[in-house]
Amino acid sequence: KKKLKISGRELVSVPTQVFSLDQLQVLEMSPERESCLRYRMDLLPKEISHLKNLTCLYLDSNNLKKIPAEIGTLSHLERLTLSSNSLSSLPPEMGALQRLHSLHLANNSFTELPAPLCQLRSLTFLDVSDNRIGTIPSSIQHLEKLETLLLLFNSLESLPEDICLLRSLHTLWLGNNHLRSLPASFGELVNLDWGYSYCSCNFEGNPLEKPPPEVCSRGPKEIRDYFLSLRR
């Protein structure tokens, strides 16, 4: 792969020459990945659209407050990391990234799950931990290939019933939210692994009542039986 990692103590902007490298496939501009990189971007240049062959774009730990619409033209993009920025929204054009399978948005300023995310039908990994997300839209059901969904440390008080349609989910982290109940069909997420060595669904830090924590800890079948018993 044709790869470029931007680094250096004296960097004060992104060199414009970067955007003429139209065969570039991997671009790293993350200070946390390069300890000597002091420069933190406030704006991702619109010229990013020139890099038509990008498959991986790493932009963690910058000062980005928004993403330009031009990102939607990167049709080959498979992995995008935007964690630890100051983002509160994503452009609608981002929904066009139909090859994107891994998206990292932890530690930003989202108060809701951005609508364009639910159009990314190839997503298998989504991390939106450490935000202020209060609601999940029912359109999350369109992410049929999603295997890992990380929602820790948000402000969720409930989950939509539609999240139970994500039958490919293996890992769902829900710790440290404000959940008092789970959707009645939650037990249908049978691929969630409640093994002793690794709990793939984490509920710690939630005031759960329906089902109570001791039921949740026993796995999908117990959760399903709990809700069935309520109907009798």
From TrEMBL:
Stored SUPFAM superfamilies: L domain-like (SSF52058)
Domain Disease resistance R13L4/SHOC-2-like LRR, chain residue ranges per copy: 70-151
Which InterPro entries does this UniProt record tie to the protein?
Leu-rich_rpt, Leu-rich_rpt_typical-subtyp, LRR_dom_sf, LRR_domain-containing, LRR_R13L4/SHOC2-like
Q: Name one Pfam family in it.
A: LRR_1
Q: Is Repeat given among the entry's keywords?
A: yes
Q: Does the keyword Phosphoprotein apply?
A: no
Q: Report one GO cellular component.
A: cytoplasm
For this UniProt record, give its keywords in alphabetical order, as a comma-separated list: Leucine-rich repeat, Repeat
Q: Which domain of life is it from?
A: Eukaryota
Q: Which PROSITE patterns match?
A: LRR (PS51450)
* PANTHER family cross-referenced by the UniProt entry: MALIGNANT FIBROUS HISTIOCYTOMA-AMPLIFIED SEQUENCE 1 HOMOLOG, PTHR48051
UniProt protein name: LRC30 protein
Name the lineage: Eukaryota, Metazoa, Chordata, Craniata, Vertebrata
